Amino acid sequence: MKTHARQIFWNAMLLTAAALVMRTVGVSFQVYLSNRAGAEAMGLFSLLSGVYGFALTLATSGIHLGVTRLTVEAMSHADRDRRRVGTVMRRATLYAVGFGCAASVLLMLSAEWIGTYWLKDVRTISSLRLLGITLPLIALSSAWGGYFTAVRRTYKNAAVQVLEQAAKIGATVYLLSALIAKDVESTCRALVLGGALAEGLSFLFQLALYLLDRRRNFGFEKRRSEGEGKKLLGITLPIAVTTYLRSGLITLQHILIPEGLRNSGSSHAAALIAYGSIHSMALPVILYPAALISSFSGLLVPELAEAGVHGNRRHVNYMISRVWSLALLFSLGVAGVLICFSAEIGEALYPGTETGRYIRILAPLIPIMYVDTATDAMMKGLGEQVYSMKINVADAAISVLMVWLLVPRFGILGYIATIYVSETFNTVFSITHLLLISQTTAHPMQWVYKPLICIVGATSAVRWLLELTHIYVAPPALSIALHVLLVLVLYILLLRLTHTIRREDVTWFKTLFCR
């Protein structure tokens, strides 16, 4: 168990480091772009992203999880049966090419209709066509990413992600300058084209890594299929169908939001500005620390799948308890920091905007969002992906209904209320189901109430100290970083003093570093 924990920990640290680098660069680029092009461009790009998200869902159609689960199953057998990995990957490649190309053709052919009648902004048409080019590449990369996750060589996924992000930023900045993007449409085109070039480069890099890894570890000897194609379809198609529904509803929601804001009395530009302020400015800050949770969550799928194959119920319960407790400790701390310093962070990143206000409003949702991410991953690892997607579909349907009813009447506050209700609904039902199927015992006092008291105490103490001493450091970013560090030190100290972090937790943590 300790070996598994250590392996998960170090793989997660590697992925977290890569994700933090990418998110740091990504948020920095968002700041650069927002200050250069304005919130209207960010709002228009968010509209494009909504449609592109649905196209990505069609292209990948659950292939990442399907490859991960079947590869783990193949590797759980005797060494002589591990040639099944090659069969799985051949079927997965055909699957990815078929769905990726179909999604690409569909998006490019319907781009004009979508831009004119759905998004009601013809400036999106050329960008939508460019986005369609990337879909087959992403589908194949998703399949290979599932393979690397299953074989526990996640550092290769991390390397691909870092390369892709670096290429995307470099290409986009160059295109913005070379094309002299002075309006919203050309800015969006530069963003999309930069992303497409980066996807092509990362695709070639990941293909090379996959071929080398497979040759070294599994060879290319062919083996007669033992129903691997049917097994793959049995995993991916139920996920795909429910994901289509959810993604379609989310796309509809993204289309309805600006329309609802306009109906509430805002102009088209003002609606895009408000929408962009939340989706392209506030939410990236809210989700920035989630790199740690996302990294651990991705690694939980093969670990729990393997434990399920061997019927190791005790290990499953142990992992669920550990993940929930750590996710809540972390997310409550992040929420407290962002609530405490929302105004300073918003002004430092996006001066003269309402981003800080939206960060403060959305920050209380962080524990709910982060725990839901971990819970969904654990449910997929235990084979409960269909139930998870049903909850996600219901969540998306509720969101669409609330946006349709509330946003035209209450404006942006109606949309924020929608986010709160849908996120809470999803998390509550997912946690309840996982508790029932795993028979894990919850510990709300240890997991929720004590950390909440500790972070409130830490942030209140730092705020009181700042008001008393007026100690600030230039530049503002350094001052914020030092204050956040002080809050975290006090938070950890209070966690230890209240026995929220116990001696056995410290011992367990030490085993992750020492053999």
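Second entry:
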Amino acid sequence: MKPLVKFATFLALSAVAPMAQANGWKKLTHQPTGQNASTAFLLMDGRVLMNDNLSAKWWILTPTANGSYTDGTWSAAATAKYTRLYYASGMLSDGRVIIAGGEYGTGTDKIEIYDPVANSWTEIAKPSGWGSIADAPSVVLPDGRFMMAEYFTPKVAIFDPKTNSWTNAANKLNPSSVEETWTVLPDGTVLTCDCQGAPGSELYDPLLDQWISLGNTPVNLVDGILEIGSALMMNNGEVACFGATPHVCHYTPSTTPGGVGTWVQSTDPPLVAGKAVSNYDSCSALLPNGNLLVTLGLGFSAPYYMYEYDGTNWIDVPDPGNSGHPAYEARLLLLPTGKVLNSCYSVHIYTPDGSPDPTWAPVITSVPTDLIPGGDYQVFGTQLNGRSTACSYGDECNMATNYPLVRLKFANSGNTAYCRAHDPSTMGYMTGSAIHSTHFVVPSGETGPAKLTVIANGIASQEIDVVVRDPIAIDFDTLATGVAVTTQYPEASFSSTAGFENVTVAAANGASAPNMLCSAPIGGAPDCAHDTILDFPCPIASLTFHAVGVDSVGTAATVDLWSGATLVGSVAVVGAGTPSTPLVVDCTAFGDVSKVVIGGISDPGGIAWDDFEFCLASTASWSNFGSGLAGTLGIPSFTVSALPLLGTTMTADLGNSLGAATLALLLVGDSTTSLPFKGGTILVDADVSLLLPINAGTTPLDADIDNDPALCGVTFYAQALEVDAGAPQKVSFTAGLELVVGN
């Protein structure tokens, strides 16, 4: 129930507000054109979705290639159907954003969902029998459902994004949830301090569908017009609840799920210019250093002030350049960089001091390391969702960020790119040692070696070495219909059990036409009921393909994956697959696979296969062997800075021991030897020898590797003998260099 100040006043305040300050705050280099920056959400692909104040216009902030949001660029998102200001909201587990109601605007009783993949808004019905939603409180439960209240009634409803349907939940104990701040707790319950009925507090248990009383807070946090502040879980397991009165209380949840926890009063905010300030209907964010960044102000009056709160002490920090507004107009959003975006008509970013406790970080336990652009993968680990919802506002504007993001940093360019995460196994937090997961889609564009991290609430996991590769696709559409498929593709050969073969059949699979692959008796009609066997000359990773004709009843077939003579995994073919919507068979959890057997087909009518897509496993390597011969400056080095990958240029770096330009004899062969010469040892049985000039420093030696799978796993050797006039023997040798071609 905030006063709707006219836009002219907004603009006047912006004109007199100070510019961005040092020591923590910086104004974004690019501001969205014509936008009065308001509520913002962190999308699961690392971008920021932001609302234009009291408008149907929305904007997208995309970080730069080096990961900077400060220098990021803006683009227009799809325009919503309704205008809104101060509304219920939440990030759904599939990556969509739900927006409901609004205290002002045309959408006070309307609900829309934004799909960032389609860049579109879809209106959905509100709960049956409901009136206005207005600025209702809301949360996303750990199971991914969205929970919100009706305006000025005790009604509560829960939306299931999987079924797009509403279910009525138990009514609150007090007459209304108006102006309340809801906070989901680690056990899935929901904490609130009653505004209508202050200083009471309640807890909702979704398992029991029941609200229980938590008693009164130690001091009243609600002012005379029912306003309150934000509330956030801290790393110590206590929820800091800030008042619209100049007070703070902490709630410690019960160790029994759904039990009654304990309240204590904490330290009041400091006086500012002799006046009591509060987090009046405003925001806070959990920083990676463990402190909370909190806005404080004088009720509905400008300006607002910024403090860090460590659970006891208040630490004065500089105010941003847009602080010439009342505190309730500011929004804080924690970014994956650990910085905080402040949107209040203009956009500023706060860089905190300090660093997180290492025990707060996500930990990756399993993730595929060979990735294809556009491929959908799954990463597993602990604490993937962080330890808090991390962002809060005094009732509406739920901008929680407790979901995992997946980021790549490419070795060759130094660029960063966010994958599109979706459908984490939980939307809860503080999950301890439990293993959880999220799916992620690798962006198109850059390929090559990269470091993969999972980020939760601005804190990154350990780095995992991965390689992003362009996919190899086999879809049989280059062949005529009725052809036996054997060795037509260099990446894989096809076969079946004795007496059977695989043939192309004229059938359209979605956009792939005209052929699919079916088994058949040799020379007979396809029956699609026998094994399809793939042998790969080079080990593969990230295999997916399509199944057509699957009836969705039980396991229709089994995919066995082999590495040499070892069975490394089996994947069941389960689901429905039609030509228009084929079933995707995902075997991306298994790498270094050399043979695949698709068998055990029990589906009536058999199953056809199509659109095999995979990448070759990362087997490239290099190492030194043997001993070199010292020259003027010691033994010259022979190392590799770009691996011998199929279809790329390998770079070996030859160090010159003389410190001046000279000549070297480069020996290359597919076997080694041990031949004494000039006091040293020739280590390579040379098939090729080249005389070449070398620099005083390091000389890069480039070699193009053909994109031929027959080369995968091939090992060859090299050694350089350098002319060194200052050495007693007038020559120096490198150690041997062993190279294994891979992809």
